[in-house]
Design goal:
The chain is an all-alpha fold. The chain has helices at residues 3-26, 32-53, 62-89, 92-99, 102-112, 120-137, 149-168, 178-200, 209-237, 239-242, 245-260, 267-284, 313-319, 325-335.
């Protein structure tokens, strides 16, 4: 990943880390499904406006909208519901640690779908970052591990859903980023509408100015802008790399709490942040000796309808001859 891509990933971590702050303020006066509905609905309206002003068009194909529906379910409705239910039964610290397993599941899913290699240094880096999250939040959170198996499985299920969403979302990389984000958020809002109306009765809510401001920040910054950055990164660096944001979110939440809420940063928290950054560097390959780093990414697949060129019999025969091995390699490089 380039420095610019790491910078965008850090901005995304700040935006999504800030979502916890905005949600906490909004949930002081509103019920959960109402917050989810307003979050997705306002973000979808804003991005549909951006689509129109930028000269793009939303697709009319039912198949494309079915894809947006699947993406909205995998990336928003299913994990948000599982996390909301799981956090009722387990501590928020343990939930954060389990949620940080998302890059591991993403690496496995992306490898299974043939999108990315399951490199050893990447898995080692994710594991190191996961240990860092546990140290940052506090090892005491792990004492509750096993106390509520269903609650823990709900958070792990959310992480797996995010992994499939990241891998599935790459099929929309040919579209301008704002189009699939607007489509995904539109379908997410429609999925949140029935439970919000049935359970929350949002028409009876009387939110104050602080709550309205938190909802706007949650919808326009954490959601609309955040998912635009997410899709831009997804198309350029792949699903596993963009899901590394789950390792950075606890760091940004800690720093935001220190700056705005006067929360104290402890020694273990600093150690946890150091482990997380070392894990990220290992994933990026910068902690490996140069001879152990990958030399180049795997070659792209040939366009649809084409097959890779195979060497001619004469060239294949030449490659078997020691005296012509060098010239054969040169002709092969020129052909690629």
């Amino acid at each position: 990943m380039t420095s610019r891509q790491w910078g965008l990933l850090s901005v995304l971590a700040v935006l999504w880390g800030g979502a916890f702050f905005f949600s906490k303020v909004a949930l002081g006066e509103l019920r959960p499904f109402t917050v989810v509905l307003v979050r997705f609905g306002v973000a979808a309206i804003a991005l549909r406006l951006v689509v129109r002003l930028s000269g793009h068009r939303m697709p009319r194909s039912g198949r494309t909208w079915a894809g947006f529906l699947v993406l909205g379910a995998l990336n928003n409705f299913i994990p948000f519901s599982l996390i909301a239910w799981g956090q009722v039964h387990i501590t928020s610290g343990l939930a954060s640690i389990l949620n940080a397993t998302t890059p591991l599941f993403t690496a496995v899913v992306a490898h299974a779908w043939g999108q990315e290699r399951l490199a050893a240094h990447r898995i080692a880096g994710v594991l190191l970052g996961l240990v860092g999250v546990a140290v940052l939040i506090g090892p005491g959170a792990l004492r509750h591990l096993g106390a509520s198996t269903w609650g823990e499985l709900a958070i792990v299920g959310a992480a797996i859903s995010y992994a499939f969403a990241g891998t599935y979302g790459r099929r929309f990389r040919a579209l301008p980023a704002v189009v699939p984000v607007a489509g995904m958020l539109t379908t997410s809002a429609l999925m949140a509408l029935p439970p919000a109306l049935a359970l929350d009765h949002p028409w009876a809510a009387r939110p104050g100015a602080a709550t309205v401001g938190a909802l706007l920040g949650l919808a326009l910054l954490s959601t609309a802008l955040g998912f635009l950055i997410y899709f831009r990164l997804l198309s350029s660096v792949g699903a596993t790399n963009v899901m590394l944001v789950t390792l950075l979110i606890p760091v940004t939440a800690l720093l935001l709490g220190s700056v705005f809420l006067d929360e104290r940063v402890t020694g273990p928290a600093l150690a946890g942040m150091a482990l997380i950054f070392c894990g990220l560097l290992a994933i990026d390959g910068r902690l490996l000796p140069r001879r152990l780093r990958p030399l180049r990414p795997p070659p792209p697949d040939p366009p649809a309808g084409e097959t890779p060129a195979s060497p001619s019999p004469r060239r294949a025969a030449g490659s078997a001859s020691p005296s012509r091995g060098h010239s054969t390699a040169g002709s092969g490089a020129a052909a690629t």
